[in-house]
Amino acid sequence: PTESVTVDPVGRIAADGTVTLSGTYRCVANTGPVFLSSSVGQASDVTHGIGGTRAECDGAEHTWKNSGKATPNDLAPGTARVEATLMELRSDGGLPLPRFHASQKRDVTLTGS
C-alpha cells in the first residue's frame, strides 16, 4: 500500500480560537514513532501548529483529528491553508532524525462552531 495523508475540506474554529482539523492517513511499517502534525494559516505567512496525533502504521487507512489554539484573533471563519504531515522519528545510532512519510497542503473552509 502507498503512504498518504488527506485533509478534510472543512475545519472548525470555536469562539475561543480552538481550531479542529481532520482527515485520513495511511502508512506502512516503521522503526520509530510516527506522528501526524497539522498547521493552518490565513492571509499572512504566519502558520499555527494545530495539535499532533500518534499514527498507527499498519497499512490500513485511519482517520485523524487535531485540535489546538491559534494566537487570539489571528484566525477567523473563512478560507485557510492547511498542511498535514506524517513524520517518523527514526533513531540511527543516537539522535532521532525525521523521516517524512507523506504530506498534503490544501485550502479548507474554517466554519464557526
How would you characterize the overall build of this protein?
It is a single chain. The protein is an all-beta fold and 113 residues long. The protein has no helices and eight strands. Strands 1, 2, 3, 4, 5, 6, 7 and 8 form an eight-stranded mixed sheet that branches. It is elongated and about 45 Å long. The N and C termini lie far apart (36 Å). The model has no long low-confidence stretch (mean pLDDT 90).
Portion of residues in helices? Answer: under 10%
Structural class: mainly beta
Put simply, the count of helices is 0
Shape: elongated
Major pleated sheet = 8 strands, mixed
Q: How much of the sequence is in beta strands? A: over 45%
User: Which consecutive residue ranges, at least 5 long each, have pLDDT under 50?
Assistant: none
List the main descriptive attributes of the protein structure presented here.
single chain, 113 residues, mainly beta, eight-stranded mixed sheet, 8 strands, 0% helix, 62% strand
Topology:
Elements: E1 4-5, E2 10-13, E3 18-26, E4 34-41, E5 47-54, E6 62-69, E7 78-91, E8 96-112
Parallel strand pairs: 2-8
Antiparallel strand pairs: 1-3, 2-3, 3-6, 4-5, 4-7, 7-8
